[in-house]
């Protein structure tokens, strides 16, 4: 009798250990080594009650993860691009020049085949980050005004999180993760999500 109870207890413990091991989920880490915890359905539904800058901070790590998973190369973009649609795109190039006009700053990046203007100033045009992400939809928000303000908050967060680029950066090579929009078959409204120096 004792042996049977002992075996039952042992089986239960073994089952519990196996369950715990299989229930573990691998969590991605951000650039700072912190875990990226995906939004729950309840959190996604509650976005309408938050200020746009709070939403931007709340979803930023999820958005970067989404961008890394769904981004395309410039060659892939050329084959699949559609007008009035936004994409996450990765590319490399050399900083050829920097145009500064008041708060609007544009970094002109030479990829070898084309010059891509990247917005890095405090004034950012377009909705590329918001519209490229699969995490966001208009239905999650109260109205168009809140949805528009979110786009501005995401643009601001994007530029605040990249490396500093100034006149001394001309001639340096960079690896860029961006959001951009296709208009009239042309790349426009490019916003960086991550920029890294290439040695």
Identify the notable features of this structure and list them briefly.
alpha+beta; 6 helices; 199 residues
Lay out the secondary structure.
Blueprint: H1 2-23, H2 41-45, H3 52-70, E1 72-73, H4 74-80, E2 85-101, E3 104-110, E4 115-119, H5 128-132, H6 144-160, E5 173-183, E6 186-198
Parallel strand pairs: 1-2
Antiparallel strand pairs: 2-3, 2-5, 3-4, 5-6
Question: How is this structure best described in words?
Answer:
This protein is α+β, with helices and mostly antiparallel strands. The chain has six helices and six strands. The chain has helices at residues 2-23, 41-45, 52-70, 74-80, 128-132, 144-160, and strands spanning 72-73, 85-101, 104-110, 115-119, 173-183, 186-198. Strands 1, 2, 3, 4, 5 and 6 form a six-stranded mixed sheet that branches. A hairpin with a 2-residue loop joins β2 and β3.
Give me a quick take on this structure.
By secondary structure, this protein is an alpha+beta fold. The chain has helices at about 1-25, 40-45, 50-70, 75-80, 130, 145-160, and strands spanning about 70-75, 85-100, 105-110, 115-120, 175-185, 185-199. It has one domain (about 1-199): Nucleic acid-binding proteins (OB fold (Dihydrolipoamide Acetyltransferase, E2P)).
